[in-house]
Design goal:
The chain has about 375 residues and is mainly alpha-helical. The chain has helices spanning about 1-30, 35-40, 50-55, 65-70, 90-100, 105-115, 130-165, 170-185, 185-200, 220-260, 265-270, 275-285, 290-295, 295-305, 310-315, 320-330, 330-360. It has 17 helices and no strands. Helix 7 crosses helix 10.
Amino acid sequence: MGAYILRRLLLMIPTILGIMAISFTVVQFAPGGPVEQVIAQLTGQGGDATDRITGGGSDIGGGNDIGSSIEGGGSNNSKYRGAQGLDPEFIADLERQFGFDKPPLERFALMVWNYARFDFGDSYFRDISVIDLIIEKMPVSISLGLWITLLSYAISIPLGIKKAISDGSSFDTWTSGIIILAYAIPGFLFAILLIVLFAGGSFYDLFPLRGLVSDNFAQLAWYEKVIDYFWHLALPLTALVLSAFATTTLLTKNSFLDEIRKQYVTTARAKGLGENKVLYGHVFRNAMLIIIAGFPAAFISAFFTGSLLIETIFSLDGLGLLGFKSVVDRDYPVVFGTLYIFSLMGLLVSLLSDLMYTWVDPRIDFESRDV
């Protein structure tokens, strides 16, 4: 097993490099980079990101330098759209500030070297390092990912087992209808319905609509903090878990049905074992192999991806919303930093899932297989 783990770890290196290289190449051809955003703001076409650059304490542009750059530049052959009339020296200074004065290969090599040392640099448009920014947004994503995974498993496994035992019964039929309906309803649409019904929409105002905790959270007693925390999470988790449990429930049911129909179950019953002993002493371990082993991947998937729309609707500032804003703002350090961390953790979780297979069922031996 040690050799298998080592091979998998070594394979992560070219995989990460490939992901970063493809993403870096795509970015080179994407219009509207950070330099263009500053130029657009200077020419009166900027958005929120460039407002953050030129406002406050940023060292990119500002004050008299901006005015002189616009007035004294004259025409130029800048490669940036909208740069006509700006001083070429100012454009060159912007490129140096953002690191675009170096050739692409040199920039990529420098990025790889820094990322290998987990040095992700600072955000272009926020006065904070990338790693601190990710840590700042992580509580929301951890909360959503952890509780969605636990709730979906807590609902799906007992329901899937019951459906497998009652296969073809009226219970199986109507619960399948509910599951299909829940899976078909978009989470964001259900979230809006919850807001209309329970969060100050057209009916009741029972739940908050903003943030993970209340403004006075620090002054609350410990038990009040717990209540306040789950009070804020109630509607987002309900919206997310609606479709999250559907796939796991059907997977649990089908896995149990496959095992129940195997010969060893017939043999166990023929020996006089009780139904509970057969189901939970023999079937459960084999049927739950794929479910239990997939738990790390399910958690990481929910933790990282969450739901951008759910975070936006309920004003939860998590990693999903951070990633979206970073792409829109062309905040490349944040984009590549989060991509690197997510890709690395995804690969590690994939390895952990394989190791859990061997823990749940020692008969599985990855050592004898090619990676």
